[in-house]
Amino acid sequence: MTQPTLTLAIKRLESSLGVSLLVRSKTGVTLTRHGESFQRESKKFLEEWFELKSKIIKEKDDIRGIYSIGVHPSVALYTVGDFLPDLYRKHPHLEVSLFHDSSRIVTEQVISHQLDMGIVVNPVNHPDLVIIKLISDEVTLWESLNNKNNDVLLCDPDLTQTSSLMQKIKKQRNDFKRIIHSDNLEVLRDLVESGAGVGILPGKVVGTSNKKLVSLENAPVFKDNICLIYRADRVKTRASELLISTIKKLKQ
C-alpha cells in the first residue's frame, strides 16, 4: 500500500469514528488515547473475524449448520418423518428448524430469504425459485361408513382446493345445508371418521391404510402436486446439497 493510500484510509477511518486516532508531528506519528483504545478493540475484532471466517469455510465444506424448512403441518406428517430421522442419525452437526404455515406463506418466506427451503403444495412459478415435484395427491370428498349427517360439509375454507371443489359440488348437488369450518385437516378427518358429515380432504391426509373412510363416488377431484422449493441463487454448502438430494428422494 502506498503512503497516500494509507493516509487516505486513516482519514476515512477517523471520519467514520468521529475522533482522531493519530497525532502527527515532525518527529513521527503516535496514537491518541482513542487510537490506543481502537487498536486494542480492533485486535479482538480481527480474532473474532478470523474465527468466523474459519467457521464459515468449515460449514461450507462439512455437513453442519442450521437450515430452515417451511412446510404445512398436514404435509409435514407424511414427508418430514421420511428423511429427518436418518439425517440426524448420520450427521450430528446438522440441525433443521421447521416452520409451519400455509404453502402460500412458506413460498413467500423462501422467496424473501427468510427460509432456506420449503415443501409446499401447488407452488406458483417464480423466476427466483427452483421447483421440484415430489409427490402427487388428490383432494376430493370423503365420508365414513357410518356417516350420520349427509347434509353437513366439513372443509378448510381458506384452501384453493376447497373453493375449486365447492364450485363443482354446487353443480352436482345442492343438499349440503350446513358447513363445519376448520383450518386443521387432521381435525376435519377425525370429525368425518366420527360420522359428522362429508369432508373435503387430501388423500394423503386420509391415509392409504384408513379403512374408516371412503371417497364419494363421482365426486369432483382436485389434483395436488407436493413440491420442494428453494431459491436459485441460494448459498451452496455440502449440507444444503445433502438436504436437497435427500428430500428429492421422496419422489414417487
UniProtKB/TrEMBL annotation:
Where would one find coiled-coil regions in this protein? none
The protein's matches in InterPro entries, at most eight in alphabetical order, are given as:
LysR_HTH_N (IPR000847), LysR_subst-bd (IPR005119), WH-like_DNA-bd_sf (IPR036388), WH_DNA-bd_sf (IPR036390)
Domain of life where this protein originates = Bacteria
> Record's Pfam families?
HTH_1 (PF00126), LysR_substrate (PF03466)
Keyword Transmembrane helix in annotation: no
**HTH lysR-type domain sequence ranges:** 1-32
Q: Name one GO molecular function term.
A: DNA-binding transcription factor activity
* KW Transcription (keyword) present: yes
Q: Which UniProt keywords apply?
A: DNA-binding, Transcription, Transcription regulation
Q: PROSITE patterns from the entry?
A: HTH_LYSR
The entry's family comment says:
Belongs to the LysR transcriptional regulatory family.
Question: Protein name, please?
Answer: LysR-family regulatory protein
